[in-house]
Amino acid sequence: MITPRTIDFSGAARLDRRVVLLLGALLAGCTTIQKDSIALVGGNVLTPDNRVLQDAVIIVRQGKIEQLVPREGFVIPRTADVVDVTGRWIIPGLIDGHVHVERWALGRYLAAGVTAVRDVHGEQDSILDLREQIGRGGLASPRIFSAGAMIDGSPATFSNATEVANATEARRAVDSRAVAGVDYIKIYTRITPDLLRPLMDEAGSFNLRVTAHLGLTDAITAARLGVSSIEHMSGVPEAAGSPDRFFAEHRASFWRGWTYFEKGWAKLDSVALNRVAVTLANAHVAVVPTLVLHDTYSRLDDSAAINNPDVRSLPDSIIRRWDLPGMVARAGWIAADFPSFRASRANQDLFIREFRAAGGRIIAGTDASNQLLVPGLSLHRELELLVQAGLTPVDAIATATINPAVLLGGDSLGLIAPGRVADLVILRENPLVDIRNTRTVDRVMVRGLLYLADSLIAAQ
Ligand SMILES: [Zn+2]
Description:
The protein has 20 helices and 17 strands. The chain has helices at 17-26, 106-111, 124-135, 167-180, 193-205, 219-225, 236-240, 244-252, 254-264, 270-282, 291-297, 303-306, 309-312, 316-322, 324-331, 337-357, 377-389, 393-399, 402-408, 453-458; strands spanning 37-46, 52-61, 64-70, 80-84, 89-92, 94-99, 114-119, 143-146, 151-152, 162-163, 185-187, 210-212, 229-231, 286-288, 424-427, 441-446, 449-452. Strands 1, 2, 3, 4, 5, 15, 16 and 17 form an 8-stranded mixed β-sheet that branches. The protein has a 4-stranded parallel β-sheet with strand order 11-12-13-14, with helices on one face. Helix 8 runs antiparallel to helix 9 (254-264).
């Protein structure tokens, strides 16, 4: 049973506070004061300047953060419903920057502290319907931002993508998405620079950002043409080395392109990698590395890695639907491929460090709920991998809070500050001393509604 703490905005909330107090006094013993807000009292709060305000009070009203103040000397309004969070750690709600959202996973995202997801492809109508339904309230769910269905070149990799073969079709695909109300555009591996140019032009006229999983366009070319973000660090090896062989493999098939790309990292030299990192950072292109995807698929020869606790938390029906052996067969992977994938991990981490050092914006993303990528929990693994790559815990938290908020244009998301929406996570342990502590979710607040993580898990 999901039991959000709901606030009654009727009547009393609009009364003068003295009247409410008088009524409260008169009715003492048979009723309580109407509550119009929540006071989270005693937590250690991560502030917008990356400091910790200890023993703080957060006042939440009508879905927004109204105040963030030290408890000492602060008089908690009597109309506030007090929640004691003494000794807890409070961070902004987490945002998964790369998902394929599915209805069954909504509660799982929330239970893991994920209060918003950036969906980058699916069945357009059903996802946009789900987004509307969630926007109206009443469903325990993260906020959904969505690209709808992605746009691919010819032949399209997925049947539910929109295939475009020329400039006119590329423009038309953007137009139809603008009408449908997507939040941004997602392009896929078979988009060439010749298709990307008119597509960017059309997206610009609708003020829609474009994010790219690149194949036939290298990352620097895509940046020059104006994409806002790059998924999976795609197009980076192509930009750092000689791209022709990569492009031939991407043209041959999606999986041949992916496999060659994934192995290609190991052969890159660090000077070339640094040049790409600096160029992309200077172009203000955000990168969504999805390290958890690269890392997980580099260990498919290790049964313990496959059967990790995050995966085991899922119902068997999902694991069966994933059909991991079927995916490996389609990819054509054999045992010898996995050590090659693992050999690329060091250069992927190096790229992350250099891109960050150059001032680049990194976004945590998981690719859930694709095979072995678990809605909610895999985002914590992504944060762990980003720290292993060289980010500090506070930097890693930014990749799942303020950085995606900026990319999404969600001015109100990503920080705990007055005026921002009340999306936050209450943790039992300090994530700044060990990033794995982001997993210790006690309660989650989204749109000002407070959920116990256990109740969300029990509801699944
Ligand atoms: Zn994806």
